Amino acid sequence: MSEALTLNKITSQRGISIGEAAKRVADLGWTPSYVQEAMTFPTDYKISKAPRDPMKQVLRSYFPMQEEKDNRVYGALDAALRGDMFRNVEPRWVEWMKLFLAIIPFPEISAARSMAMLGRLAPGEELRTGFTMQMVDEFRHSTIQMNLKKWYMENYIDPAGFDITEAAFGKCYATTIGRQFAEGFLTGDAVTAANVFLQVVAETAFTNTLFVAMPSEAARNGDYALPTVFLSVQSDESRHIGNGHSLMMSVINDPDNHLLLERDLRYAFWQNHAIVDAAIGTFIEYGTTDRDKKKESYAELWHRWIYEDYYRTYMLPLEKYGIKIHHDDVAAAWDRLVKKNYVHKVAQFFSVGWPVNFWRIEAQTEKDFEWFEHKYPGWYAEFGDYWKWYAKKSTPGQTNMLFDQENGYVYPHRCWSCLVPCLIREDFCVDEVEGKLYTYCSELCRWTHKVAFASEYEGRPTPAMGRFSGRREWEEVYHGWDLADCIKDLGFVRSDGKTLVPQPHLRFDNRDMWTLDDVRGHTIQSPIVLIREMTPEQREKHIAEYRAGFKINPVN
After folding, report:
1. Which of the ends of the chain has fewer CB neighbours closer than 10 A, N or C?
2. What Gene3D superfamilies does the annotation carry (predicted)?
């Protein structure tokens, strides 16, 4: 008997295919038929057809593959350091990575948590294996991204900001937008959040801009570490897309789900556009120093990956199953990018509030102006003077841009749904929900809050949908605070107790550094608090003036 079980005989046995192994693993699942399992993560969807695992993944093949990827990532980071990468990398780019790498690990962890939700919901055992692998993927992604952040912190000339990203995330003037994105994977109906918002839209459509366009721009700025990490992350996305599509097709199988799926596709696409395009568009267009006119702008990348690849080849075919696709929403998103200068207004907003961020934001230069005008005709007329003001106001002793009265910038309201400010002023919306006034950046964000996230949708009860609640807007939290006290509370002060972590320039001499004394004496005001305090007549006048917009004054 012992002779029959020798190691040589065991290892020399003929193997089975990955597909057969996946089938046998699925057969090990045991769902008792004599008891009704409690719905831990509620959904209003009906899922009766067991989804299939398109990738047939098993641990035997999964872990060696991921180990090889990790070895390549860490080996490349070591090689970059030995090659003295930080002598050539552009500081402007690395500074914006403080924001990017503060945000992105949190969506990865949220995605991992959301797979537990889907694993409990999906009938049958087959796709549960796929969701398990995806959960491990997301943990891996977060880990190597956190390691990259630590690597930057240890080697970059100004590590301040990298060291506080975990504490800064979620309470910073800008990162609250990223928090809204990540929490979209977890909140509300489990299928809405984890399947539609995350897998069907975020991973299928917008990871191209996140994990392909960003690495490309990083390499153009002398950063070869970020491409190594994020292309390794992107290599897992095809499996995640397959998981999401498989579950969605099992949902489509029941016509009772069509109304909910139409709602969720609409909500998820618009939220991803509003948040991802705001952040990634700004990183790619304003974090770079490479102004090669032959390279694609963010709008051109968006048209190729979101419009052509996702909308035309993924969304449109769903119509043959009876799902209504809102084509006008896609057109509206495109118009916001190319006609309404959405990304450029976001960059303007981020820079206005530089004292309450935790990274350096450098003014755009004449070289940048020329490139923007080439790619976005009319850009200079709207934004040129603003960036000249920003450069002028970058030295200590000047009034910071957040409170400067000379330049003409008018601080925006913030959208309650996506948490991106209402920057396209002509689209500004105000409405009441449950007796309380809210502001929105667009009609679709108003619809999201008032209609999509309600207890009933078009006459159908939707108790599993979540609700937007709490003190979500950054300005409301610090309403009435002195700017210096706010920065101290945020923790955005360096070790000397007075010098700010954020700076409006890339000058590293201590004489050029802003301190708490340079920003003291300005009181933060919350637009949502102020508009709620207005009389109806005052509010109507204010809304009309806000929608009319503002014009930046010429620089003296």
Report:
1. N
2. Ribonucleotide Reductase, subunit A
CA angle 459-465-466, nearest 5°? Answer: 135
User: What is the chain's length?
Assistant: 556
State the first-to-last Cα distance of the chain, in angstroms, to the nearest integer. 94
Determine the residue type at 476: E
Q: Over 70: is that where the pLDDT of 25 sits?
A: no
Burial zone of 225 (CB within 10 Å; 0-12 exposed, 13-18 middle, 19+ buried): buried
Q: Please state, in angstroms and rounded to a whole number, the distance separating the CA atoms of residues 37 and 31.
A: 9
Residue 119: closest CA among 138, 132, 137, 133: 132
Rounded to whole angstroms, the Cα distance separating 306 from 210 reads 12
Task: List, for residues 378-402, the tens digit of each pLDDT value.
Answer: 999 999 999 999 999 999 999 999 8
Give the model confidence (pLDDT) of 184-212 as tens digits.
999 889 999 999 999 999 999 999 888 89
Residue 30: pLDDT above 60? no
- On the question of pLDDT at 332 being above 50, the answer is yes
Secondary structure letter of residue 504 according to DSSP: S
**CA–CA distances in Å: residue 2 to residues 8, 10, 13, 426:** 12, 12, 16, 81
Q: What is the DSSP letter of 320?
A: G
> Residue 307, Cα to own-chain centre: how many angstroms?
19
- What domains sit in the chain, N to C, each tagged with a CATH number? 59-476 (1.10.620.20)
Find tokens 């002195």 and name the residue: 482
298-328 per-position pLDDT tens digit: 999 999 999 999 999 999 999 999 999 999 9
Class of residue 164 by CB neighbours under 10 A (exposed 0-12, middle 13-18, buried 19+): buried
- What is the reported pLDDT for 123? 76
Q: What is the C-alpha separation between 371 and 297, in angstroms, rounded?
A: 10
Q: Cα separations (Å) of 552 from 312, 388, 407, 549?
A: 39, 10, 6, 10
Contact 77, 148 (CB under 8 A): yes
3-state secondary structure 95-117: HHHHHHHHHCHHHHHHHHHHHHH
Q: 91-103 vs 105-121: helix axis angle to the nearest 10?
A: 30
Total-model pTM: 0.92
User: Containing H/E element for 154?
Assistant: helix 126-155
pLDDT band, very low/low/confident/very high, at 5 (cuts 50, 70, 90): low
Q: Supply the pLDDT for residue 58.
A: 72
pLDDT band at 27 (very low <50, low <70, confident <90, very high): low
Contact in structure between 46 and 257 (CB atoms under 8 Å): yes
Name which of 158-167, 215-224, 466-475 the model is least confident about: 466-475
Nearby residues of 405 by Cβ (< 8 Å), 6 or more positions away: 399
